[in-house]
Amino acid sequence: MRVAFLGLGIMGRGMATNLAKAGHEVSVWNRTPGKE
Asked: What is the pTM assigned to this prediction?
């Protein structure tokens, strides 16, 4: 499954990490580069 997150925040980062660990293709974008 391909998943995209826009504006990660605290909750989004955890969800994106877990989906990537489960083998999903994850793309992320955050407006503040230092908070990836």
From this structure: 0.72
* pLDDT of 17 higher than 90: yes
Number of domains in the chain: 1
Query: How far is the C-alpha of 26 from the C-alpha of 8, rounded, in Å?
Result: 12
Neighbours of 16 (CB within 10 A): 19
Q: 13 lies in which domain range?
A: 2-35
Residues 6+ apart with CB under 8 A from 29: 4, 5, 6, 7
Please answer whether residues 31 and 8 qualify as being in contact, where contact means their C-beta atoms are separated by less than 8 angstroms. Answer: no
